[in-house]
Amino acid sequence: MDIHAKTVLAVLLLAVGFVATLIMFHLQGRGETVRNPGRLRGAHRAFGLVFFVLLVLLVFTGMRYVAWGRGEPSARSIIHVVLAAALVAVFVLKLLIARFYRGLLRYVSAFGMIVFVLTVLVFSASAGYYLARGGQIWGDREVQEREEKTSALAEEAVPEAVHAGAAVYERYCAFCHYAESTESKLGPGLKGVLRAETLPVSGRPATAENILDTLENPIGTMPAFTNLTAEELERLIAFLETI
């Protein structure tokens, strides 16, 4: 599942959680004045089921990414994992109370509100961050620093192919991979990638051929780059050899 699909799922998770929370407020906050409470409870359960399915999908893809990543996780990734774990724990507790420990039903509304707050925080640390960076709403300074470092790396190398390769990297790779660091971003940092013994994530020998194969047949959430021309690929490899 690529980053775009995960973002769509995260947006749906936030929207479903918001609607479920509104229904809960309507049921709990208006008391006996609520019309058709049975239908509202049914709708709340339906949205809760959809929320659970979306949450399981996102947690599964997140666990796969963490398991396959070999670089040092970023601070944002760690925060994301902690918040997601807390969200799962609170949601499971809410389900247990609603299904099996009905003597504690007075706490269900509080758990529901905590679930929604954690959902917003998890969304902000993952899909929200991705969408904001895509629109350059948040982190403009970091984007500028990344572009300056990538340009500086290219300036140090004389061959024209390296300069062109830096442009290819900036267009297709820099959003997910640092060129000046091995720290993980959305994907592992690629500094020294062709001087290492193995490639990150796949663990295959660090060769140009294996990088080209990974671009065509990616692993995990990385999208395929079958649209790159042979010349662009050659220039990209030339740039990767310099970082």
UniProtKB/TrEMBL annotation:
InterPro entries: Cyt_c-like_dom, Cyt_c-like_dom_sf, DUF6529. Keywords: Heme, Iron, Membrane, Metal-binding, Transmembrane, Transmembrane helix. The chain crosses the membrane at residues 7-27, 47-66, 78-101, 107-132. The keyword Membrane applies. Residues 160-243 form the Cytochrome c domain. GO terms for molecular function: electron transfer activity; heme binding; metal ion binding. It comes from the Bacteria. The keyword Membrane applies. This is Cytochrome c. It comes from Eiseniibacteriota bacterium.
